[in-house]
Amino acid sequence: MEPVNGGAEITGYDLQVKNADGEFKSFEECSKAPVYLKCEISMEVLRSAPYELRKGNAILARVRAKNNKGWSEYSEFDLSGKVQAFILDKPFVLPTPKYEDISRTDIRVYWETLDNAEEYSVHKEIDGVFTEITRTTDNFYLY
Predict the structure, then answer these.
(1) pLDDT value at position 21?
(2) Class of domain 1-91
(3) What are the structural domain ranges in the chain?
(4) Which among 54, 67, 72, 74 is positioned nearest to 7, based on CA atoms?
(5) Cα separations (Å) of 2 from 9, 41, 67, 96, 102?
(6) Where are the alpha helices (DSSP H) in the chain?
(7) Is 75 left (phi over 0), alpha (psi -120 to 50) or beta?
(8) Is cis: bond before 34, omega within 30 of 0?
(9) What pLDDT, in 10s, does the model give residues 55-91?
(10) Rg for the chain (alpha carbons), in Å?
(11) What is the pTM for the complete model shown?
(12) CA separation (Å) from 49 to 26, 45, 53, 64, 101?
């Protein structure tokens, strides 16, 4: 989804991650042209300077956008709820889903349950783009 831009084209983003000392530090790779709506940061980067996050640390980030009118305010996050991401001690690998034919038009996709998972996000790939099609608390999806 395209962010709200107030009628002026977005020309840049500033993504910041809170480091181990509690200070927000910009992730420069997300600020470079061309402008993308998605930016990935590896656990390796978050474990190194200037972030220095360690196993169990929460990953807290904020973002702001720039257009010809200047910079927006930073996004806010609500810490009263659950923190969604933590530094892992090793890369997390999802088990490969399995498929089962139910009928000529339906298949059942299922996977191993994951410890501490409260829900699963099911995505569909179309022309190289993954789009979420549902969220479920079950470990299967009928498609």
Answers:
(1) 92
(2) mainly beta
(3) 1-91, 98-142
(4) 67
(5) 11, 21, 14, 31, 37
(6) 43-47
(7) beta
(8) yes
(9) 878 888 888 888 888 888 888 876 665 556 766 666 5
(10) 19
(11) 0.56
(12) 12, 8, 9, 22, 49
